[in-house]
Amino acid sequence: MKFFLSVCVAGGLSMGAVAQQKIDSSYNNTYYQGRMELFHHLPGARHAIVFLGNSITERAQWQELLQGRTLLNRGIGGDNTFGVLARLDGILADKPKKIFLDIGINDIGRGLPLTVIGNNYQRIIEKIRSASPGTKLFLQSVLPMNDSVLTAAYLKNKKDTVLALNRIIIDLAAKYGLTYVDLHNDVFKDGNGDLKRELTIDGIHLRPAAYELWVDYLKKKKYL
Asked: CA separation (Å) from 151 to 1, 44, 199?
């Protein structure tokens, strides 16, 4: 679905409305529907730790990496901020203990304005705070990519856009008193600011070793 949208993001993200333009807000494809059907049939878990995002989240074996904890993997390959907004109610019904959110790279890939992405982030934050105020929300940065091995042409040359979105996420974390999790750090990026070659399959998706580093980083920072 594409429609015309005018957006104004407060809190320092934008000083005015975005000019009217076509915004691709689509998310509800067959893969999304299949994952949602799976989630519907899985047993619920009250006060779980939820990892919420796109394929980068979905591909992790969080339960194996964090054994002994009540965890839910709520990643959907190809998802974006519109898709996360649409499925929050089902996640919040079980009052998660923590949510680790990592979303936005697919929004960038389809060329959505940063103000639109930031506005959706703000809506996600406010919905979580309203529906499940006891949930601790962690805003994780968008990870770096590696253009030299990136197979998805639509994601090439987006390094500066990723950095700009991360600045928006930092500002939102500060505005709402949330924890910003900096995954765009030396654990994952090389000296050029790109995702380390040895950690990636295709320039964006992660090898298993990268998820171990991710979990170790979360533990080191005492987020888990």
From this structure: 26, 36, 15
